[in-house]
Design goal:
heterodimer, A: mainly alpha, MetI-like fold, 11 helices, extended, B: mainly beta, two-stranded antiparallel ribbon, globular
Chain lengths: 247, 91
């Protein structure tokens, strides 16, 4: 009986993994076809598209995206660390309210956020911000809830008694933060920054509103430049990330 | 130089209306090893926390080596606080 149950368990896990990864195999197979259409079983094989990827129109957006994502993950990490320290560790007055305020961008759809930010920038006379500065600011708003959540969780799990023991042995506050708190919550900080990087790097719905003509970050030309945009959209909808969005 | 390491004088602690520690008087002479046994919830931890400085007493005094400790932060006190086993000893 136990063996049947565990067998079923492994079969279901294998099915889930296949369901998640098979679309990627379709994309990989399609990427080797010489036609610009998607064919599952190409009649001949080529790596031409990978060579095309080295063109400036793909490299420049990639570098721009990487720069924005690195900057955003660093700023989000630092801001998230400071916010989480006050809210989750020091438990300042009204910490629950501040926490829900920090997480509130999650409740607004990304497209709405994009429109709101563009309207704000133009009505505030900051239209020159549209482009990289606006993208960085918008991505920080977008990724901060994730960074705060991850770092705050790590801080909730921090044993306050360690801090007390450190304090009673004469460690100052700065020493306790540097030698006790930061090393223990390091995994949380890194995962928060990784989340921020990934979300910033492949964001489309918010970024399309803030892109200056001719200087698009990486994900948007992959949707717009292609003359087979609908097929790319279809491929995108096949990707596992979107399945998780639909949940 | 006082001969006692720790002196608790009339020490009390209230949390709201409930009195956790009521008027403790304790003198620990120099070099003495003292343990505080008791059922859980009787105020042992609260007393040690007050000696270490994490909780300020509602009334009474704490003296470590003859020095009054009110207002002295934990990191400035000559005591070491350990969690779980929670001994409080002098350095």
């Amino acid at each position: 009986m136990n063996r049947i149950v565990s067998g079923l368990f492994w079969v279901s896990i294998a099915l889930v993994m296949a369901f998640i990864t098979l679309p990627l195999i379709v994309v990989m197979a399609a990427s080797l076809s010489p036609s610009s259409r998607v064919t599952l079983v190409p009649w001949e094989w080529t790596v031409r598209w990978y060579g095309d990827l080295m063109a400036r129109r793909w490299i420049d957006p990639f570098i721009l995206s990487a720069q924005i994502a690195i900057l955003v993950s660093l700023i989000s990490g630092v801001l998230g660390l400071l916010a989480a320290y006050v809210v989750a560790f020091e438990k300042c007055p009204g910490h629950a309210t501040i926490m829900s305020f920090l997480l509130s961008p999650l409740a607004v759809p990304q497209i709405v956020k994009g429109v709101a930010i563009v309207l704000f920038l133009s009505s505030a006379g900051l239209y020159r911000w549209v482009g990289t500065p606006g993208l960085v600011a918008a991505h920080i708003i977008l990724t901060l809830p994730f960074a705060v959540r991850m770092i705050a969780t790590a801080m909730f799990n921090f044993d306050k008694n360690l801090d007390r023991a450190g304090q009673s042995t004469g460690a100052t506050k700065a020493q306790r933060i540097r030698h006790l708190l930061l090393p223990i919550i390091k995994p949380g900080v890194f995962s928060g920054m990784t989340f921020a990087f990934i979300i910033s790097f492949n964001n489309i719905p918010l970024s399309v509103f803030l892109v200056r003509p001719g200087k698009p970050p990486c994900p948007s030309p992959s949707l717009t430049i292609s003359n087979t945009a609908s097929i790319r959209c279809w491929l995108r909808s096949m990707s596992p990330r979107c399945f998780s969005c639909w949940r | 130089m006082s001969t006692s390491d720790i002196e608790l004088i009339n020490l009390s602690k209230n949390f709201g209306t409930s009195q956790i520690v009521r008027e403790i008087d304790l003198i620990v002479p120099h070099g003495e090893f003292v343990s505080i046994p008791g059922p859980s919830g009787c105020g042992k931890t609260t007393t040690l926390n007050m000696i270490a400085g994490f909780i300020s007493p509602s009334s009474g005094q704490i003296r470590i080596r003859g020095v009054e400790q009110s207002g002295v932060p934990p990191e400035k006190r000559q005591s070491v606080w350990c969690f779980r086993t929670m001994p409080c000893f002098l350095i």
